[in-house]
Amino acid sequence: MSGTWSNWSGYVTAAPRLVASPADVGELSDLIQTAPGPVRVSGAGHSFTPLVKSQGTIVSLDKMEGLVSHDAEKRQARVRAGTRLGPLMHILQNIGQGLPNMGDIDRQAIGGALGTATHGSGPTLGAYHTQLEAVRLVDGLGKSREFSRAGDQDAIHAIGVALGAFGILSEVTLNNIASYRLRRRKWVLPWADMLRNFETMMSAHRSAEFYYIPFSGHAQFIASDLSDATPTARPLEEDEAGLRTLRSLRTGLAWLPALRRRLIRGAVAKVPAEDYVQDWLNVYASDRQTRFNEMEYHLPFEEGPKALAEVIELTERHFPEVYFPMEVRSVAPDQFWLSPFHNRLTCSIAIHHDAANDPLPFMRAAEPIFRRYGGRPHWGKMHSLRAAELKKLYPRWDDAMAVRRDLDPQNRLVSPYMAELFGIEQ
Fold first, then answer.
1. What is the pLDDT of residues 89-126, one digit of tens each?
2. What value does the mean pLDDT of the chain take?
């Protein structure tokens, strides 16, 4: 049936001729062959770029979810691509397995998380796509195809990050680890200390990240390490309450910036530290209710502090309406051809703006800073780059495009936005 579609923030909308939810691979194959084109797959809508937008067909894989099979000895699990990360965590825990790492949102579908190079944080921990052992997809001709790391590693490296343009994933086999427990600690420190000790602090833990709170002069550091200790209670989340306070100070003290800064500094400096132990699935994710739009760039690790310092200066000098914290993470290098982490240890910097505000002035002002330091954009976060600029950032770009043409020779999966992104003539 026809309808409307919107991403999570409401910034990207579409009015496709058909919105479809296939129940199996056969129905998915029929849709790709016969539905109005272009055919795009929606995942959970947590991307901020127009990856899904189509006037033709938007496919939801919500009916294609759950565990297919697992191998206890190899610690592998095969799941359907529409499985959301929240349920996936419990599926894996029940079979004694765990994802090695996660981001802080668990609403995404695993297919979408893989296709956009979604990631957590840790200098030795890769993004979700680095767990891929095998994939089953339906290509642009409607043919179901299987690829495995053992049988064709180049194919896995080509289609592991594919933005739904090489085929639509139906099932994926993930290499996991044994279920584990983490000690999670949070504390606030002055921004100058964080900047001075950036490399040491980000490398001293299995997983480490921090948030810089605009106009506060402080960062909240988060460290996670393996633990065998008895689980303790996870503190109640205060993130949403904190955002409401920051928004109120932004709005109520718009004409008193010095007072706003002083109040924010005082409030952030008094945030209590946290220290708890829990099973992995009870640690990573947070409940994000306040809607926002986001830009994230992936930079060479050593360039991260310099770029962030410039973005902070830009924000606090020219964009007083911004109140969302900036998130800083690290990601291990990998060999996937369209991965933003291809062949380099990465510092990822994400900036956010309330969905009620126009994000473009802020994002357009910050993007040149990220680009000047060699940044690659997150595929699912706001950016302005197109094929000519992207090709310069990815050594295996031409190889990836050749695989894409083989899997979708008629460009059934190519929307106008995807054509601009990949340089495809239509």
1. 999 999 999 999 999 999 999 999 999 999 999 999 99
2. 96
The model's confidence at residue 401, banded by pLDDT at 50, 70 and 90, is very high
CA torsion sign for 164, 166, 170, 175 is negative
| Fold match between domain 67-178 and domain 181-377 | no
Which CATH architecture group holds 181-377?
A: 3-Layer(aba) Sandwich (3.40)
Q: Which of the four CATH numbers 3.30.465.10, 3.30.1360.20, 3.40.50.170, 3.30.1490.100 does domain 67-178 have?
A: 3.30.465.10
Q: pLDDT digits over 136-152, tens only?
A: 999 999 999 999 999 99
Please answer whether residues 411 and 401 qualify as being in contact, where contact means their C-beta atoms are separated by less than 8 angstroms.
Answer: no
Helix 257-269 × helix 239-252 angle, to 10°: 160
pTM: 0.96
- Residue 144 CA to residue 75 CA, distance in Å, equals 25
Token pair belonging to 255: 């004409």
List the one residue out of 376, 382, 386 whose CA is nearest residue 353: 382
Q: Do you find a cis peptide bond into 38, omega within 30 degrees of 0?
A: yes
Distances (CA, A) of 34 to 37, 101, 289, 416: 8, 39, 38, 19
Provide the residue ranges of all domains of the chain, joining segments of one domain with +.
Answer: 67-178, 181-377
